[in-house]
Amino acid sequence: MKTPYNTGKVKIGSNYHPDLRPAIDADMEFLQTAFIGNISKIKRQRAAWAVYISTVIFVVFGIFLFT
Fold first, then answer.
1. Alpha helices, DSSP H, located in 1-67
2. Rounded CA separation 38/43 (Å)
């Protein structure tokens, strides 16, 4: 591995290794929440999705109704 910076006495960053863990996405977080048993967070997510979908449907129907 190439040393990022060498001062002559100290090699800064010689032991740096990038993080190899995968990034946490929404599905992974949902599964972990379900395994832990945090039901209130799952209910909040479902309610938020229900509000989002109903808003989209309402807007689409409004566009078709008034145009």
1. 26-36, 39-66
2. 9
Model confidence pTM above 0.85: no
Query: How far is 45 from 26, CA to CA, in rounded Å?
Result: 11
Cβ neighbours, 10 Å, residue 41:
14
In Å, the largest CA–CA distance within the chain is 75
Torsion angles phi and psi, residue 15, rounded to 5: -105, 15
- Residue 60 banded pLDDT, cuts 50, 70, 90: very high
Q: Using the Cα atoms of residue 45, residue 48, residue 50 and residue 52 in order, give the sign of their dihedral.
A: negative
Q: Which amino acid is at 51?
A: V
C-alpha span between 38 and 29 (Å, rounded) = 11
